[in-house]
Design goal:
Elements lengths: L5 E6 L3 H11 L4 E6 L2 H10 L4 E5 L7 H11 L5 E5 L4 H10 L3 E4 L4 H12 L13
Parallel strand pairs: 1-2, 1-3, 3-4, 4-5
Length: 134
């Protein structure tokens, strides 16, 4: 694989939304894989490295924050952006404290998501920060 391809993992139990994200990310140089559960995301992170993951907070089985914490325990440099359509301050705070790059509130604009990928692909050494959409 070419080094200029960004490996992205979308972790989302809403299959239609996951597919929409995959299509949008496909407009950039991204190789996108989808996990529908936190357990699948953890397994996939064990199998390969991703440049970034977009993970829903509400997932069947292990929620996104639990999955984030477990992934960062063995892959501390992982860049994970949490996504949520719910307002659960305790979970959002827990995600930030656990090491999430950012928390995006659904619905968010795809152009913002793509701008995040563009900054990541721009070669910056610091994780790019995408302002959360409120």
């Amino acid at each position: 694989m070419s080094p200029d391809i960004t490996r992205v993992l979308v972790v989302e139990d809403d299959r239609d939304f996951a597919e929409s994200l995959t299509i949008a990310l496909g407009t950039r140089k991204c190789e996108v894989e989808i996990a529908y559960t936190g357990e699948d995301a953890i397994r996939m992170f064990h199998e390969r490295a991703y440049d970034i993951a977009f993970m829903d907070i509400k997932l069947p089985g292990k929620n996104g924050v639990e999955s984030l914490t477990e992934i960062l325990a063995f892959a501390p440099r992982a860049r994970i952006v949490m996504m949520t359509g719910y307002s659960e301050p305790a979970l959002l705070d827990q995600a930030r404290r656990a090491g999430a790059v950012d928390v995006l509130r659904k619905p968010f604009r795809m152009r913002d998501l793509l701008g995040f990928i563009d900054r990541l692909q721009g070669g910056g050494t610091q994780p790019p920060v995408l302002p959360a959409i409120h």
